[in-house]
From TrEMBL:
One protein family per Pfam: PhzC-PhzF
Protein name: Phenazine biosynthesis protein PhzF family
One cellular component (GO) term of this entry: cytoplasm
Organism whose genome encodes this protein: Actinokineospora iranica
Active site: E46
């Protein structure tokens, strides 16, 4: 039996919405093929397998592929490890990255700082109005795109949706890596109203770096 903790990452200020994340804190005996199969069975946009809680060494899977970097899984697992261990995390160590990923808490939000080039190769499509983002059809959208429009450009508030069939996900409720990339491209902090009602915070963090963060809520533990 495999136990999976489920959290919602990038919840709104009332703890609603957010992108579901599965986290396996004890993957002993599971091969990489087993882990990929579990991620596919769960069907969340990502599932994390923590190979060592003490060092925060982990693997990240979509239902279709393993990723070196993804925003909502790293934010979510940082929060969950702090909850489980009783101490805030300083770094996460995705197996497929050469360097650890810094993580920290600020104003009630959990953040990670990452190299933009390590993110999946998202496309970004700016639309003229938020209503066009709302009307986008996942069936006809590109396979790995973040569609976005300004809700309030002066305040840095964005409306966005992500479509990710290339990674086995029709629509990603709240995508941290695409939003991190968008903030880096815009060169300014942004607050993104994502998916059905999630809230993603992102900002540039120096040359080639970005930060993404948000609120995390624990949902349940399930067994497979």
């Amino acid at each position: 039996m495999t136990e999976v903790d489920v959290v919602r990452v990038f919840a709104d200020e009332h703890g609603r919405h957010g992108n579901a994340l599965g986290v396996v804190l004890d993957p002993a005996g599971l091969s990489q093929a087993d882990q990929q199969a579990i991620a596919a069975e769960l069907g969340y946009s990502e599932t994390v397998f923590v190979e060592d809680v003490g060092s925060a060494r982990l693997r990240i899977y979509t239902p279709a592929v393993e990723l070196p970097l993804a925003g909502h899984p790293l934010v979510g697992v940082s929060w969950l490890l702090a909850r489980e261990t009783g101490r805030a995390q300083d770094f996460l160590r995705p197996v497929l990255l050469a360097e650890p990923v810094p993580t920290f808490v600020e104003d009630g939000a959990t953040w990670v700082r990452a190299t933009v080039a390590d993110a999946p190769p998202w496309d970004h499509l700016r639309l003229a109005e938020a209503a066009e983002v709302e009307a986008a059809d996942p069936a006809t959208a590109d396979e790995k795109v973040q569609m976005w429009a300004w809700l309030d450009e002066r305040a840095g508030v964005v409306r966005a949706r992500v479509f990710a069939r290339a990674f086995g996900v029709a629509e990603d409720e709240a995508c941290g890596s695409a939003t991190l990339m968008l903030a880096a491209q815009l060169g300014r902090p942004i607050t993104v109203r994502h998916g059905e009602g999630s809230v993603v915070l992102a900002r540039p963090a120096g040359p080639g770096l970005g930060e993404v963060g948000g609120r995390v809520v624990y949902d349940m533990r399930r067994a497979l």
